[in-house]
C-alpha cells in the first residue's frame, strides 16, 4: 500500500509551483514511496548500542597543543618583499583598478 498518494504529490507540486503532467505525478509518487520504504527499512535496523559516527572508517586526528611561538615581526616579514609601501606589501595593479 503506498504511503504517499498521487494527490499528495499534486498538492506538494502546487505548493512548490511546479507544473507536473499526470505521468510525472504517478512517477514521482512511486519514487517518493520507494524512498520512504528505504528510510523505513533503515529505521528497522537494530542499532541499539551503536555509537554514531561521521565516517565509515575510524579516523585518528592528530592534534598538537596550542603553544605560543615567536612569529615574524612586521619588519622581518617585509624585509624580503620586492616592493613595500606604507609598511605593506606592494603588488601590481590588476583588472584595471584605479587608485
Question: Would you write up a description of this structure?
Answer:
- By secondary structure, the protein is mainly alpha-helical.
- It has a domain at about 5-45: Histone, subunit A (Orthogonal Bundle).
- About 35% of the residues lie in helices and about 5% in strands.
- It has three helices and two strands, in the order H-H-H-E-E.
- The chain has a two-stranded antiparallel ribbon with strand order 1-2.
- A hairpin with a 2-residue loop joins strand 1 and strand 2 (about 90).
- The radius of gyration is 30 Å and the shape is elongated.
- The N and C termini lie far apart (about 70 Å).
- Heterotrimer of A, B and C subunits.
- It is an enzyme of class 6 (ligase).
- It comes from Corynebacterium pseudopelargi.
- It catalyses: L-glutamyl-tRNA(Gln) + L-glutamine + ATP + H2O = L-glutaminyl-tRNA(Gln) + L-glutamate + ADP + phosphate + H(+); L-aspartyl-tRNA(Asn) + L-glutamine + ATP + H2O = L-asparaginyl-tRNA(Asn) + L-glutamate + ADP + phosphate + 2 H(+).
Q: What are the secondary-structure elements, in order, as H or E?
A: HHHEE
CATH class of the domain at 6-43: Mainly Alpha
For the terminal residues, how far apart are their CA atoms? 70 Å
Radius of gyration: 30 Å
CATH architecture of the domain at 6-43: Orthogonal Bundle
Helix content: 25-40%
Specify the structural class: mainly alpha
Compact overview of the structure:
This protein has 99 residues and is mainly alpha-helical. The chain is 37% helix and 4% strand.
